[in-house]
Every structure is written in structure tokens, then in C-alpha cells.
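Quick one: structure for this chain?
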Amino acid sequence: QVQLVQSGGGLVTPGESLTLSCAYSGNTANLTNLGWYRRVPGKQRDMVAILSYTGGITYAESVKGRFTVSRDNAKSTLSLQMDSLKPEDSAIYYCYWWSDRVYWGQGTMVNVSS
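Got it. Here's what it folds into:
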């Protein structure tokens, strides 16, 4: 079992920055893909950024150059630095972990509005 606890998020104006964090614990020793997804209410959950167990990083085209995903193993934390936020980035963001199965964080709201 893996536990994911998210923090961060909130309301910002366009152009501002936010950082989301995801603290992971439990059986985290296995090879894993981890990252972030987001969902606009009424729509499907879409990939934002993934850190592969091979070391590769994949970003959605819509966030490339603005978002940065990183992992701090010493702190058991996954982060998503979001810069130059746009209204279309407004969504519920979920931390994602795949090892023996998929795990999700509880979700955190990001609202970008003027």
C-alpha cells in the first residue's frame, strides 16, 4: 500500500505561480511512475506530468515550459511547480503513483481567475 497526501493549491490570478506537493509513504521501494493529473469537473482526468521509473519526464503539451515536476526522495515528496498560470489550468489536481497498482492523492483545487 502507498499513501499519498497532497497540499498546496488555491486561488491565484493569471500569470502567478503555485506549488503543489504530494507526500508519499508506505511501500514506496518498488520501481514506480509518479506524477500529476488534473480534472476539470465534468471532464476526464488528464495527464499533466509524469516521472518515469526509467528517469524520463513527460509533460502535457499545454504545460510544457511552464510546469516543472520534481521528486525529493529524502523528504518523500513529489512537487509540481506551476508558473505563468492560465485560467485554463484551473482544475482539481491529483498526485499519481503507479507501482503494483495505481494510487491517487485526495485531489487539490487550483483556480486561476482574475
